[in-house]
TrEMBL record:
The EC number(s) this enzyme carries: 3.6.1.45
Swiss-Prot/TrEMBL cofactor(s): Mg(2+)
Location within or outside the cell: Cytoplasm
Class in the EC hierarchy, top level: hydrolase
Name this polypeptide is given: Uridine diphosphate glucose pyrophosphatase NUDT14
Organism: Biomphalaria glabrata (Bloodfluke planorb)
Protein's gene: LOC106050141
Transmembrane annotation, as ranges: none
Length: 212
């Protein structure tokens, strides 16, 4: 379990990853405003290892989830979080292998790179099957999420995964049986997002029909 401490919060300026905007517009003659962010689109991949019939996910600490799970306090003029009261486990997720689309490359190629970086599998491009593309959020972010499915085998495992050390990524690979994946969809003790839940549903409906 990751040890999270020394948490402070400041305002976010000149982010490479998100741009907060206030949108002013007129809808059916009514003047309105909405606060939103422009963000990178993303790609997420449900991985299934057919050698051992396990679903493959990643576990990592997500600051955005953590900060929405805690109460901050001002100490000596600085916004802080008491990590004794609010342990880092509050921000741990189980997710699909995923990445932001911040390179000028076809989406499947970015997906292939993320699978290698995060999970350690060298997957042929032809193994990537598109599930669908949908929106990531409607209130504050509205970027696209491209969802893929890929079958992998133990032979394709060429590394440990875990993310790029150069980017400070600390990711663990999590393997689950199909039954464990089915339970994960409704396990509210785990931080998970709708893309993960939908991808498992899709898998059960399209790949694991009749218990395979
Ligand atoms: N907001 C941010 N602040 C600081 N550093 C950041 C950042 N976003 C990305 N980074 C940096 O960029 C690195 C690469 O990110 P990735 O492309 O692996 O996307 P990630 O797995 O974070 O998921 C991403 O893409 C998936 C698929 O869209 C989304 O579900 C998920 O919310 C999104 O974080 C991160 O390790 C981090 O160093």
């Amino acid at each position: 379990m990751d040890n999270i401490n020394n948490v402070t919060v400041t305002s976010c300026e000149n982010s490479k990853f998100l741009k907060p905007k206030r949108i002013h517009y007129q809808q059916n003659g009514v003047n309105k405003i909405w606060d939103a962010m422009t963000v990178h689109d993303g790609v997420a991949i449900l991985l299934f290892n057919t050698t051992r019939n396990v679903l493959i996910f990643v576990r990592q600490f997500r600051p955005a989830i953590y900060i929405n799970s805690v109460k901050t306090e001002i100490k000596d003029g600085i916004e802080t979080v008491d990590t004794n009261l609010y342990p880092g486990s509050l921000g741990m997720t189980i997710e699909l292998c995923a990445g932001i689309i911040d390179k000028n490359k076809p989406v499947p190629e970015i997906a292939k790179e993320e699978i290698l970086e995060e999970c350690g599998y060298e997957v042929p491009l032809e193994n990537l099957r598109k599930i669908t593309t949908c929106r990531n959020g409607v209130g504050t972010t509205g970027g696209l999420l491209h969802l893929y499915y890929a079958e992998v085998t133990d032979d394709m495992k060429v590394g440990a995964g875990g993310g790029l050390i150069t980017e400070g990524e600390m990711i663990s690979v999590v393997e689950m049986s199909v039954d464990e994946g089915r339970k994960l969809m409704f396990d509210e003790t785990v931080n998970r997002v709708h893309g993960l839940i939908f991808a498992i549903y899709w898998f059960l409906d399209n790949i694991w029909k009749n218990g395979n």
